[in-house]
């Protein structure tokens, strides 16, 4: 239990540091936009573009990867039931209303890293675009006040592991 207390203490300190940055209003506005890019509709559009460009053979593995990632995310979130910053920090209010009750792991971050890994398996040249985007999605969730930093790390880990599993499945012929 002491380990969890230490992690939470680290999260609260790091969270506070992030929220005290200069130009917070501009960062919050940018964070709203970046966070919206990971809401979900973009992933369907990417799937449609891949389909139209002849990548139909990888789409079943991509869909299975998303199903596994979403299911794992839901189970972990219900198991840990970690309060979001507004519930965990007295007097704090987040910038946006979160989509669900608990914070661990970050679903936006998990999906962004999953999509990043999947797309990098097809287009490795997009590394310098996709990795910063996925990282910015995670940071945006902290800056909007709906996640602690370790929620982001857990989401990035979940998305990456699921993506690596899926890309291995594609390479092995599923």
TrEMBL record:
<keyword id="KW-1003">Cell membrane</keyword>
<dbReference type="GO" id="GO:0005886">
    <property type="term" value="C:plasma membrane"/>
</dbReference>
<keyword id="KW-0378">Hydrolase</keyword>
<feature type="transmembrane region" description="Helical">
    <location>
        <begin position="146"/>
        <end position="166"/>
    </location>
</feature>
<feature type="transmembrane region" description="Helical">
    <location>
        <begin position="42"/>
        <end position="68"/>
    </location>
</feature>
<feature type="domain" description="Phosphatidic acid phosphatase type 2/haloperoxidase">
    <location>
        <begin position="58"/>
        <end position="167"/>
    </location>
</feature>
<dbReference type="InterPro" id="IPR036938">
    <property type="entry name" value="PAP2/HPO_sf"/>
</dbReference>
<keyword id="KW-0472">Membrane</keyword>
<feature type="transmembrane region" description="Helical">
    <location>
        <begin position="111"/>
        <end position="134"/>
    </location>
</feature>
<dbReference type="GO" id="GO:0050380">
    <property type="term" value="F:undecaprenyl-diphosphatase activity"/>
</dbReference>
<protein>
    <recommendedName>
        <fullName>undecaprenyl-diphosphate phosphatase</fullName>
        <ecNumber>3.6.1.27</ecNumber>
    </recommendedName>
</protein>
<dbReference type="InterPro" id="IPR000326">
    <property type="entry name" value="PAP2/HPO"/>
</dbReference>
<keyword id="KW-1133">Transmembrane helix</keyword>
<dbReference type="Pfam" id="PF01569">
    <property type="entry name" value="PAP2"/>
</dbReference>
<keyword id="KW-0812">Transmembrane</keyword>
């Amino acid at each position: 239990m002491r380990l969890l207390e230490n992690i939470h203490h680290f999260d609260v300190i790091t969270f506070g540091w992030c929220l005290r940055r200069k130009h917070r209003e501009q960062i919050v506005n940018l964070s709203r936009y970046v966070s919206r890019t990971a809401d979900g509709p973009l992933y369907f559009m990417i799937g449609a573009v891949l389909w139209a460009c002849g990548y139909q053979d990888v789409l079943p593995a991509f869909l299975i990867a998303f199903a596994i990632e979403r299911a794992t995310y839901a189970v972990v979130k219900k198991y840990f039931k970690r309060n979001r910053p507004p519930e965990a920090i007295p007097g704090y209010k987040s910038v946006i209303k979160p989509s669900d009750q608990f914070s661990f792991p970050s679903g936006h971050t998990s999906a962004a890293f999953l999509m990043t890994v999947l797309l990098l398996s097809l287009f490795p040249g997009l590394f310098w675009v996709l990795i910063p985007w996925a990282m910015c999605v995670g940071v945006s969730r902290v800056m909007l006040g709906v996640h602690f930093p370790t929620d982001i790390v857990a989401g990035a880990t979940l998305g990456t592991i699921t993506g690596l599993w899926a890309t291995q499945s594609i390479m092995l012929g599923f």
